[in-house]
Amino acid sequence: MTDQLAEMPTDWQRALAIVAHPDDLEYGASAAVATWTDAGRECAYLLATFGEAGIDTVTPAEAAPLREAEQRASAAAVGVESVEFLGHTDGVVEYGTALRREFAAAIRRHRPELVLTLNHHDTWPGGTYWNTPDHRAVGRAAIDAVADAGNRWIFPDLVDDGLMPWTGVRYVAVAGSPRPTHAVDAAAGLERAVRSLLCHRSYIEALTDQDPETYCRTFLEGQTTAVAGRFGGRPGVAFELLLNR
After folding, report:
1. What is the mean pLDDT of residues 45-66?
2. How far apart are CA 160 and CA 193, in angstroms?
3. Which Pfam family is one of those matched by this entry (predicted)?
4. 60, 72, 154, 237: most buried, per Cβ within 10 A?
């Protein structure tokens, strides 16, 4: 794929990121988040799980609070204060109306103009590696929940709870998509993105024998540099941008 990536739109003020696990946003998208918060935009994080099944050497009961704390520190490194967890069981999140309802409720509460999620497609860029069920379920439900949030006749009990329909979402940005269309210049946010990913030290130390800082920097610099060929030579964070209306 050689088409040039367009600049991500900036005509929005509030974003809500909906992902499956701690570290999902830090493996690339956080450099864009840092750039956005620097510009005075607001961003909140909603995570479906605590990522408790992600470390083979640590039991889920021990891993959940550890990964929650690391995610909160990671978010703070890029200027995000609001981090919420839904507590679904890591690895077995199921797409369905219950998940859509939870996401629609969050969208109505936060009233974002941009919803950010992770790759919901079957494979990662390049088509070689299969995506995980949690990513696919959460990404797809997040996209569907955008429409659900704006329709008072879908999940009408949300209105009874005081959550009125929200039709203000203009964009859905999918990070890690094999079909990117837009990008954000990563230069200004890259150092904080490295620090943000490094906050997930317990996960990273179980994942690789490399020095954690070297691992984080090498990974993120490689990701952002790979985008440069389609983004005017600038390192970037790529997104598949979907328009809600």
Report:
1. 97
2. 40
3. PIG-L
4. 237
Inside any domain, residue 1: no
Total number of domains constituting the chain: 1
In a domain, 187, yes or no: yes
Residue 1, pLDDT above cutoff 60: no
Listed residue (109, 114, 126) closest to 180, CA to CA? 126
CA angle 208, 211, 215 (to 5 degrees): 65
Q: What is the dihedral of CA 150, 88, 177, 146, to 10 degrees?
A: 0
Structure-model confidence comparison of residues 2 and 81, the more confident one: 81
HSE-CB at 230 with a 13 A cutoff on CA atoms is 21
The pLDDT, as a whole number, for residue 2 is: 65
Q: Are 233 and 187 in contact (CB under 8 A)?
A: no
Flag whether 49 is in a domain: yes
* Residue closest to 44 by CA, chosen among 89, 9, 90, 13: 13
- Whole-angstrom CA distances from 235 to 100, 105, 133 are 34, 35, 30
Please tell me the predicted confidence (pLDDT) of residue 27: 93
Query: What per-residue confidence (pLDDT) applies to 126?
Result: 85
Query: Is the pTM here over 0.85, yes or no?
Result: yes
Checking if the pLDDT of 207 tops 70, the result is yes
Identify the domain containing residue 123 by its residue range. 6-243
Q: How far is CA 208 from CA 125, 203, 219, in A?
A: 22, 9, 12
